[in-house]
Amino acid sequence: MIRVLVVDDQFLIRAGLVGLLDAAPGFEVVGEAGDGEEAVRLAAETRPDVILMDIRMPGVNGIEATERILAQAADRPPRVLVLTTFDLDEYVYGALRAGASGFLLKDSGPERLLAAVTAVDGGDALFAPSVTRRLVEAFARQQEPADTAPPPDLGVLTSREVEVLKLTARGLSNLEIADRLYISEATVKTHLNRTMTKLDLGSRAQAVVLAYETGLVTPGG
After folding, report:
1. 8 A C-beta contact, residue 101 and residue 64
2. Which of 42, 45, 126, 168 has the fewest CB neighbours in a 10 Å radius?
């Protein structure tokens, strides 16, 4: 069973998501929250596998809630799946930077939603890498360096890990990276996982964002 926490400030949307998940085999809704503050509390109490997180909420928004939830998580942190109305939304960029595993448009169909929750729970990126790249390119230039902590030093990575990170940020899938570097797909995953561990990153999306913020890859490059 995939244990899911549903977070949305609109009652009808939240109720619809809960009803869909409750009716589908293999899913269990462990809680529902109407704002970010409640989401942080329920995440600590219920320890869900996946959180469906609205980002535009009054008070504590989904970005801050995601940061707080992942910071306080022990053992296996929950996978955060952002719910948004627009795919090019600066809030989505912020959520990915905060550690969300991916995003889902609110007008996605039931099958898409269930497949997304399953994919994220399994550790996969929900969306095509090109979507991550498009989001990052759209908003990376808008971030003021002074507003954030300095990015980690990429010098801790091996040359092959840097290559894999660079190709990941350019929107290539693991299979495409494997073909480009003449290595197996499993080896690509190993390099990416080691990179994320060394840089203390929680998701592939965070790795892509970091590649842009360190200048390893530049928007449009």
Report:
1. no
2. 45
